[in-house]
Amino acid sequence: MNSMTNIKYVSSLVENRFKVIKKEIVSEYQISFEVDKDEVHRLLTLLKLEGWIQLSYLSAIDWINDNEYELVYIVMNWEKPVHVQIRTRISRENPSMDSILPIFPGCKYYEREVHEFFGVKFPGNPEYAKQLILEGWDDIPPLRKDFDPRAYSDAHFAKREYTETFVNLNNEKSKQVKREKRKERIIRVRKGGKK
Amino acid sequence: MRELKLFLGPQHPGMHGNASIHMFVEGDIIKRAFLLPGMLHRGFEKGMERHTWVNNISLIPRVCVVEPDINEMAFAMGVETLANITVPERAHWIRMIVLELARISIHLMAYGGLGSPTGNYTMMYHAHADRNSILNIFEKITGHRVYHQYIVPGGVRKDLPVGIEKDINDFLDDLESRYVEYRDIGIENPTIVPRIKDTIVLPSEVVWELGVTGIGMRSAVNKAYDLRKVMPYARYDQVEFEVPVASYSDARSRVDLKLQELVQSISIIRQCLAKMPEGDVRVPLSRGQSMRWTVPKGHVYSCVESSRGEFGYYMVSNGGTHPYRVGVRGASYPQGLLGIEKYLPGTRIDDAALWVDTMGVCSPEIDR
Amino acid sequence: MESTKFSLLTKEEVDRKWWEIGDFFRRNSLWMLMYCTGCCAIELPPAMTSAYDMERLGMGPMATPRQADVLLVTGYLSLKTLRRLIYTYEQMSEPKYVVGIGSCTINGGIYHDSHAVINQLDQYIPVDVYVAGCMPNTEAVMNGFVDLMRLIKSKKANGWKKYHKNNEWYKKNQIDSLGEVRVKDEFHD
Amino acid sequence: MIISILMGISVAFFGFVLQTSIAGVNRKIIGRVQKRYGPKWYQEFLDIFKLLSKRSVTHGWIFDFGVIMALGGIIATAMFMPITNDLMAFPGFDNFFIFVYLIAVGMLGMAMSASGSGNPLASIGVMRALTTMLAYEIPFMIIVLTIIKLTGHSSLSEIAMFQQTAVAGLEFSGTWFMIALPVGFAVAFLSLMGMLGKKPFETYIAPAEIASGPMVEYGGKQLGMLFIMHEITVFIEVSLFVHLFLGGAENIWIFLIKYFLVYTSVNLISNVNGRFKIDQVVVFFYKWPLLFAVMQAFVAIYLGWVI
Predict the structure, then answer these.
(1) Which candidate from D35, D49, D223 shows the least CB-CB separation from C67?
(2) Where are the alpha helices (DSSP H) in chain B?
(3) C16 CA to chain D: closest CA distance, Å?
(4) Which of B233, B353, C8, D269 has its Cα between 20 and 30 A from that of A72?
(5) CATH code, domain with A11
(6) Could you tell me the pTM of the whole model?
(7) Which of A129-133, B41-45, B264-268 has the highest mean pLDDT?
(8) Which CATH number is associated with domain C11-178?
(9) Interface test with D, best of B184, B196, B350 (most D CBs within 10 A)
(10) Residue A105: closest CA among chain B residues belongs to which residue?
């Protein structure tokens, strides 16, 4: 069982039939393809027929500078052990992607979660809009890059106030000597010297 | 008959962890059920984006509470793939020892956990007592009982302490000598067997539909689908071990597989202790400036075999000091959410807790 | 001279005596309700089972909130959990005590800036004993319980009285953070 | 009369103290089986008095009344219990059937009260408790009726006397029924485990399934009273067993020893077992124990084969 032949096999399988925008061999057991949004379903169907029958992971990435979401599907074949990442980009304005529920029924809850955390719609999955993890959420979806959890936390939850004043030991003389020594050592190490 | 709604959890002695199974029952039979997760949601993936790569080492063990080491391993493997770090040889072996000890501990805990839904508390007490001695060994190795932060990108944090081999060997001998006793009081006990035999069966056709991995899958499809075998990480290709399988997945066979895996783990640790070479255990990531250490651009999905199945981290780096996005594939995601919704109906109230225990539903990794 | 030894006790003194007798029983038989709100729950099985054996202190796990005396809040509390925790706390029969385990209950701990985890438990329900650490050792947890027993003996563990007294303040805090405590959605009717 | 009633109440109180201490000692023994130190021997007293010292919540008058009815019914049952041959409150009123009927009052009170709490888990628990009762009562009754047939008495003290002294005219007198009817003894022992709610017949408590079943909504004083009721119930059932099968007691020390042995062996057996489902409990009792009970009755009564 040579792992590189498996990589070559899946690579030729996909590249012969689909327009791959970007291919990347991540490690000896993993390969990643970036394809167009419309081709994902056909590609996943093909891979499922070829033995990639387990949906390992489904999630999204928020590329806020490109104004795009990237959806990631990871499928796994246990006979030819290769994880295939399939990535596709969708627009960040009114994001929507057809559900892959007919191909992989296991995606039901992953899609619900992606909808909850990113706001991506999945027409075709009847329950994608139900809340799963959050309860009574009243802000933008929390895993988007423009959501600041710290501000939300400050606004909603009371923080413990520490009224005691602490002594700043850093200004003591012995500490300063030590710090100088440490700095010198770091400089020496960075230049390639010994400890 | 009137349909009643019962809650198994979040505060319920039969529920492991903080999640709630809503069951609609008629008599004792469950008609409809679903899991309501999210009570352990702490914004984990967001939190990891807000910490540097090195700071995240202290955050990752807290994803799955019962088995923290696999998180560290998956994270370390992912970072090593992205940053192209070669780990010293000795570190691989130490990692394997720690991972297998953790696997024994979680299997003991799950086996003891079987005592709670079936009512045999003596078995639970014995298993937890043994698990505590593993935690003591961990305290000697890493300094912590539960969250070790020991497996770090680039190796392990420090070398094994002197004389730990004796402690580990003593523990393994003790555990092995009482293996028969464990079987007798648990899965071969005539009062427990009727409870766990032929209950909550997972048919082999639906494994792929759900996406169940780990013991749940191996007990149904009768194939040695173990990530340690099919895509070996660390030095699992250099030790000899078998992956126990079964062709019929009921509660009893799943627990049986757990016990057999425990024996295999014992043998792996013994081999590791014998074969472990001398040498360094860690390559320095950066020279003194770990907080400003950057990882090259890339996407990686790194996964390890946990006691519940394939546990993976999907990591994206944009070349900065912080991860751009980290996604966690909880190993019990499929059996916890879809499995409960589809395969709990038709069973009895008594069996719901058994599903949670034997399939290993771990709510912190579902919620994150 | 009037004998101080045999003088009649006033009503308050009698009440106090009875309360002290009750406290003796209460501190020697603390039944706890394990609400595994977070990761520190993983250190409770060793504490309960053979390794540290909590039962020798008279403590034991209980199945439902009505039967329990001590509410263990083990670790971080997400908003969803906090709602359920408040129901649970209000269901328990008095006198009741709360032990907060882990740094997360004190000031949010490692999740201090998370959007889902509250930072300070005693804003929402009164807490009698805190056990610091992430995660605290089993010995620390056991020590926390011994501390609670000491507090009951010295009559300082009266968080439940505070909850009666400052009920409006607690309710206001709960509503500020949670919106509405009782959850009404498609999963709960 | 008043003296009898006072004596009856003191018998009930004695039963409570005895059973509570023995339960505490047993918790310690079980602790040692489970490799731990175990609680103090008087832990059960602390638990009960603590519960009585707490404030409690009510769920309506049926809930409260049921608890009082259960406790009252059980105390009334315990008043008739003979402890030794001479030590009993109402001599001549210790008929076996008195216990069977009076103990039902306590059980019904508890069932009523638990259903009155309105919690579905409590209703399921009560349903399971009644089903379990139906299962273990039949084999037990067959064995007890056999004993009554053999001795010609239904009074507990008479049955005990029958076992203690060999009378020339009476067949099989002078031997304990534990030895005389070994199969019947085994069946009755299983039934006793069912009565006491020990594993594997603990189905109606089942913390991991239905969160302690009937007791799910009790807290504070009501739970304390239920605990007292439970202790006295155990006292009644184990004493019944001692009188029926172990030949009663000439004096109080023998009673204590026999009582302790029976209760401890039940506990020890219980603690290495799992818990059956409710249908398995019924099937279990209606299969071999019922068959053996019928067989023992037939063999003992019609063929006269008694050891």
Answers:
(1) D223
(2) 44-49, 56-59, 68-83, 89-118, 121-142, 164-177, 179-185, 193-196, 207-210, 215-221, 227-230, 251-275, 333, 340-343, 349-358, 363-367
(3) 13
(4) B233
(5) 3.30.460.80
(6) 0.88
(7) B264-268
(8) 3.40.50.12280
(9) B350
(10) B209
